Amino acid sequence: MAAAVKEPEISERFDLEDIRKIREYNAARYEGMTPTEIVADTRAGAVELLEIMKKRKLAKV
Fold first, then answer.
1. Is the separation of the CB atoms in 22 and 10 below 8 Å?
2. 1-54, pLDDT tens digit by residue?
3. What are the phi and psi torsion angles at 12 (to 5°)?
4. How far apart are the C-alpha atoms of 53 and 30, rounded to whole Å?
5. d(CA 45, CA 55)
6. In Å, what is the CA distance from 52 to each residue of 16, 18, 23, 24, 47?
7. Are the beta carbons of 17 and 11 closer than 8 angstroms?
8. What is the pTM of this model?
9. Which of 3, 15, 25, 34 is most deeply buried (CB count within 10 A of its CB)?
10. Is 33 within 8 Å of 41 (Cβ atoms)?
11. What one-character-per-residue DSSP string does 1-61 give?
12. Burial per residue of 34-48, b for 16 or more beta-carbon CB atoms within 10 angstroms, e otherwise
């Protein structure tokens, strides 16, 4: 990561403004990264998200 970027605050309603904040955050994070680095970062985030989703699914059972 080229520079430390403050993570956006997401509202409870998760509206278009929140999506804009996330897109700007990711654009700043990916500045200076190669496409391969961006894909690796995205995959790492997906693994984390899938683990959270699995835990929530197990908690609902």
1. yes
2. 455 789 999 999 999 999 999 999 999 999 999 999 999 999 999 999 999 999
3. -65, -30
4. 25
5. 16
6. 23, 20, 21, 24, 9
7. yes
8. 0.65
9. 25
10. yes
11. --S--PPPPPPTT--HHHHHHHHHHHHHHHTT--HHHHHHHHHHHHHHHHHHHHHHHHHH-
12. eeeeeeeeeeeeeee
Q: Which two tokens stand for residue 14?
A: 């998760």
Two tokens, residue 18:
């929140």
Q: At which residue do the structure tokens 């790492």 appear? A: 44
**Which structure tokens are listed for 61?**
């059972």
Residue holding tokens 């929140």? 18
